[in-house]
Design brief:
Blueprint lengths: L6 E2 L1 H9 L1 H9 L10 H24 L4 H5 L5 H12 L8 H6 L3 E12 L2 E13 L2 E8 L7 H6 L1 H13 L14 E7 L2 E9 L2 H20 L18 H4 L11 H10 L5 H7 L1
Parallel strand pairs: 1-3, 4-5
Antiparallel strand pairs: 2-3, 3-4, 5-6
The structure holds iron/sulfur cluster.
Length: about 280
Amino acid sequence: MTESLRSLSQSSLQDYNDCQRRFELRYIQHLAYPAIESEPALENEKHQQEGEYFHLLVQQHLIGIPAEQVSKLANTDNLQRWWENYINAKDLTGFTHRALRENLSGLYTEITLSAPLGKFRLVAKYDLIAIGNDKAIIFDWKTYRKRPKNEWLHIRWQTRVYRALLVQAGAHLNGGKSFTPEQIEMVYWFADFPTEPAKFIYTADQYKRDWDALIKISDEITNASSFPKTDDLSKCSYCPYRSYCDRGIRAGDAADAELETESEELFDINFEQIGEIAF
Ligand code: SF4
């Protein structure tokens, strides 16, 4: 059943975790989302496109294009606000922009890493990996409307995969020597909550736990004979595949910040999938 599936990513693993049926529809059957017709969905789509564009602006800035020039491209209210927050984030995750550019030996933007995982490749596209002072800091820019709780972020597959994969596949960024988990930190920076980044350090125990879990889940997917629908109906509230599953046509009301954030992520056909297609 999974013969056509060659790579796994934080998004596909998160979908598998949240609902195996969604994982099957999205990554095995490659089923396009049904037409988006409701107003909140259109609004979500616009927000998601602005989010992608914001990533592009930051990338341009980090590869050396002057801020004044990049700022001219911030041409919507959201983009202007996010860009100003980014530029004014003097303590952006502990470093000023200047320190980021001058003290750290390597800034790798929009970099893809991959490593074998069972019969798959595990693939991740990073917004920024900043290397220097014997540390590697993974930055991820988020344009969520609400600031999710650290507890929620901590258990997301993104937080686990990005750190584990940097240990596993990042040696070429460190003079040929693998990073130790203790050298790695992951930082989510929220464009609408610029003074409230979420930071996650890493340890050898966490890395072992994460990599063991990744191997287990890849074996499980390889051997799966079916991909059942989730029993947790809250996962269906915002799922774009509701109409395929007889789980309602209309989107539900977001009961809490985390659920709304999950719904934003579901609309996020992000750059990462380009990496998945390439492998
Ligand atoms: S609607 Fe519910 S059961 Fe169907 S794919 Fe989405 S989350 Fe899974």
